[in-house]
Amino acid sequence: MDRSNQKDVHALNVNLGLTKKRKERNFLQKSIVKGKQSGEKIISDLVSKTTSAPSSSLINQVYMVPLPDFTVYPEKFEDKRVEYWKIPFKLLKLLFWPRGHVLKKKHQMSPFLRMIRADNGAEIYDNPSMAAVIDFKWNAARNHFLRHALIYVVFALLFAILNGAIKGINFESNLGVNIMLVLFYWLGFYLLNTERIQLKFEGWRRYFSFYNFFDLFSVIFPLVINSLDIYFGTKFPDPDEEPEKFQEQFVQITRDYRLFIIFNSFAVLVMWLELFLLLRYFERSGAYIYILVNIFKQIIPFLIFILVVVLGFGHAMFVLLNDTANIDIKPDGSSFTITPTDSDSDQPLPYNVEQFINVDSKSDNFYTNFIKSVESVFFWTGGRWDQLEQWEFWPVDVYSIIGSILLVTILQNMLIAIMTGAYEDAKEIGRHAVLEYRAELIEDYETVEKPLGNKRGNPRYIYYIGKSDYIEEWLRKSEKARKNHENFLSKVDDKNPWDDDDDDDEEEDDDNEGGGYHYQDLSTETDSTASPRKEQEIPLSLYWFVDENDNKEKLSKSKSSNISSKSTNIIQNDGDGDETRLLKEKITSMEKEFSGKLNSMEETIKNLINIIQNQK
């Protein structure tokens, strides 16, 4: 229970039935058990002090996940132990070949796994029941993850030793190097095959996420770099054995070796980033990684916008200062005088040191090269304004002032504001992001082959305990979300454009042959006086009948009912005689206008029917 105090929700491994009587332990067994318990308590205390904040929340109730058989597989696909005689061969196979997926179809999976594959949003894990299910399944999946992480750590360590990233390790014979090379390529292809199996199981669309892509790249790139190192070692001659041949190829060797060092350093960075991303399965670091990745996703469009502005200023400065000799502009260098420190006189010596600036060299004049010009403009945001000290040229001052206002004052503060908003959005979901990461890992582990079977099984009910403040907060949020949803539905019902609840519709509904539907006039005509209800439109379906007589009858009924209801409603609601007279005149004009439109429509329909009959 001490370990569960550090988590909001902790699943319980409940064994139904009577407890078996334990066998008597001897002194050695008792000592081992006590030592194990003491060690676990010390580690738990250290973890709680370093990774968890103190909490006064109490655990005073046992809860149950209200989803029976949520983690239970179909009976014939239940995870079972392999026969005992096959286990050694299975374990031997695992040394050279990763475990494959045995549950590949949706009907073979439990409802829990189907939910993970169908919905990959972190919001669904903001639920004590889901947290309990994941906590129940995490113990077995955690060991699966730790094995994978340990393999990658050894793989990265071997790469660093073989490529000189760790200094001070020398081998007197080639035997040690060869053993490390074999081990490095074995682990590399083992990890690569693991990604291949996952790609085959997930498919291209589900596999290529940010994390899976980086997992794959962090294995392939070091393998390629180490292979290049071996290739360069066999291609170029040894300077001790063939010094003349080495001198002839010295320029090419230096150029290729420089390129190799650049890629080697990048491979080291990639592997460190992969180790950083592997921390996403831990509670605190997982939330930070989720927030960081989401902030980066949201600011990418704005970073591209800033890059366009930087390219514009960099190009302008390049055009202005790349050929200063033709416009007779010279940079201002610094001058110094020499004063001796070992004499009594403070008079300077008759020597003067002046700074010489080569305007054609990009090390002295950044703006003589386009790439360096863009880079220099980018570092304006960091406060590097070398151009103001070197050039007394008014366009340089103008560009610097505009760049200071646009890049530093406006765009940089906009970037900070966007990052703040992205952080606030991701912070709330970041608390549940670790559950999402763990759920994806559990899905991968649950579907792979397990020679020893699943020791904890898949019970019908999962019980858990939770901190009282966490449960109460979730209940408050759920109640608030439910009320908001009800209010939204009520507003949608009130604003339904196909529903007219006026009392005066009851009599008209009897004459409406179009069914129980009510149609509102959504036109923008404003020349008619406001009425208590909007006039009904003739359903378009009444216009599309092939029978001409039937068509006339329905149109006439719709016309008469529409006009009579309109006139009745308006006249009854206006008691004033003058207004009634004006309304009658307007109604009469509307009747004439509508009759003309109706007659023209009838003629059009007649013509269409005649054309169709002639074609037949």
UniProtKB/TrEMBL annotation:
Residues 521-531 have a biased composition (Polar residues). It is found in: Membrane. Residues 491-534, 555-577 are annotated as: Disordered. This is Ion transport domain-containing protein. Residues 184-428 form the Ion transport domain. GO terms for biological process: calcium ion import across plasma membrane. InterPro entries: Ion_trans_dom, TRPV. The lineage of its organism: Eukaryota, Fungi, Fungi incertae sedis, Mucoromycota, Glomeromycotina. Keywords: Membrane, Repeat, Transmembrane, Transmembrane helix. It is a multi-pass membrane protein. The chain crosses the membrane at residues 149-169, 175-192, 213-232, 259-279, 299-321, 398-423. Residues 558-573 have a biased composition (Low complexity). GO terms for cellular component: plasma membrane. It comes from Rhizophagus irregularis (strain DAOM 197198w).
